[in-house]
């Protein structure tokens, strides 16, 4: 395109935009606060449709409102989207980002891309895995104590089964797994370990892998299992999160099971609110609530201090869970700032 063909008004706009871009890149070498500009931080999540991640965003925005920085919320469902997001963030003058990566094996590539763009960052929920399959422990991470929370799920399942006096011989544990993700595997392994430790028969613990971490994925995984074990009269259900348990509960319902013969306990506590509010109880009995707004707030706050004052965040922070059921969930979720 020849320059003289561009209308003067457009040309002025382009020049203004270019100059604005130049002044931004000049700013990026100076401390953001000294330049008097508001700090901008990205918050990238792998599954923006999941309430868990929406609540993390909410927590990050609360930190932004408290400290006076802007949060750019981005759904990055694959590696390409992450790369584009990081380039865009840098172009917008952002100084850093929090990320729950769509694939932990993207870790080394994200580290490189962040460095190229001069962005500081903290990982949340899913810890980066580097060469040789080892956790990248030099990258700041905040996430749940996965094994411990999984163990609490297993213990709670067993306690509720005993309360209902279900004979172990007629009861099966449906464990929907997603073993390629470490935090997921640690949670379901923890649940299995606690069931075994409590005395639940090992040969009645059935694992079934979900191909995708959504309701259809766990629904399909559970359906396969239910077909394989037609003799089981009562089911205990666990998975990596609420969504995993919800899909499996839907599968049991398809085969005539109800709240009377299914005990499902999820993890997150954010993705089961509608389920627990249903007037009639379902097989989804409860969840280990971890504070999503708390994790969003904390990671954004740590990143802000790092960018603003140069204080690096701790490399590894773990959070714990609270057991919620239909009995106490409204009260606990209100206290945690998850519902009004
Ligand atoms: C993983 C899961 C989410 C949530 C988070 C803490 O990323 O996919 O549902 O449990 O860990």
Radius of gyration: 23 Å
Give the terminus-to-terminus CA distance: 55 Å
- Which ligands appear in the coordinates? alpha-D-fucopyranose
Shape: elongated
* Poorly predicted runs of 5 or more residues: 1-34
Q: Largest sheet at a glance?
A: 6 strands, parallel
How many separate helices? Answer: 11
* Strand order, largest beta sheet: 2-1-3-4-5-11
* Class derived from helix and strand content: alpha/beta
**What is the tally of beta strands?**
12
Strand content: 15-25%
Order of helices and strands: HEHEHEHEEHEHEHEHEHEHEEH
Protein model, in words:
- By secondary structure, the chain is of the alpha/beta class.
- It is elongated.
- The chain is built from 11 helices and 12 strands.
- α5 runs parallel beside α6.
- Strands 2-1-3-4-5-11 form a 6-stranded parallel β-sheet, with helices on both faces. It has a 6-stranded mixed β-sheet with strand order 7-6-8-9-10-12, with helices on both faces.
- The structure holds alpha-D-fucopyranose.
- The site of alpha-D-fucopyranose has 11 residues, from β9.
- Alpha-D-fucopyranose binds next to β9.
């Amino acid at each position: 395109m020849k320059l003289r063909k561009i209308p003067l008004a457009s040309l002025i706009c382009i020049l203004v935009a270019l100059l604005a871009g130049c002044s931004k890149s000049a700013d990026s070498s100076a401390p953001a606060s000294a330049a008097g500009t508001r700090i901008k931080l990205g918050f990238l999540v792998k599954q923006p449709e999941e309430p868990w991640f929406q609540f993390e965003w909410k927590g990050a925005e609360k930190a932004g409102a408290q400290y006076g920085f802007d949060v750019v919320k981005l759904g990055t469902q694959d590696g390409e989207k992450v790369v584009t997001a990081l380039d865009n963030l840098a172009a917008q003058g952002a100084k850093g980002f929090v990320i729950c990566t769509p694939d932990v094996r993207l870790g080394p590539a994200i580290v490189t891309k962040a460095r190229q763009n001069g962005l500081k960052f903290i990982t949340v929920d899913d810890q980066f895995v580097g060469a040789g399959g080892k956790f990248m422990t030099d990258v700041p991470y905040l996430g749940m104590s996965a094994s411990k929370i999984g163990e609490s799920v297993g213990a709670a399942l067993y306690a509720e089964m005993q309360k209902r006096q279900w004979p172990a011989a007629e009861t099966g544990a449906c464990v929907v797994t997603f073993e390629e993700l470490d935090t997921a595997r640690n949670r379901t392994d923890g649940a299995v370990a606690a069931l075994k430790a409590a005395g639940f028969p090992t040969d009645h613990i059935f694992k079934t892998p979900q191909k995708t971490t959504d309701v259809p994925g766990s629904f399909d995984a559970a359906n396969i299992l239910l077909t394989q074990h037609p003799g089981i009269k009562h089911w205990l259900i666990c998975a990596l999160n609420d969504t995993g348990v919800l899909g499996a509960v839907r599968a049991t319902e398809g085969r005539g099971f109800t709240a009377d013969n299914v005990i499902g306990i999820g993890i997150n506590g954010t993705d089961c609110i509608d389920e627990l509010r249903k007037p009639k109880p379902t097989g989804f009995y409860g969840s280990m609530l971890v504070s999503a707004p708390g994790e969003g707030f904390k990671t954004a706050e740590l990143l802000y201090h790092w960018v603003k004052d140069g204080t690096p965040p701790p490399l590894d922070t773990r959070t714990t869970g609270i057991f919620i059921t239909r009995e106490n969930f409204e009260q606990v979720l209100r206290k945690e700032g998850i519902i009004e």
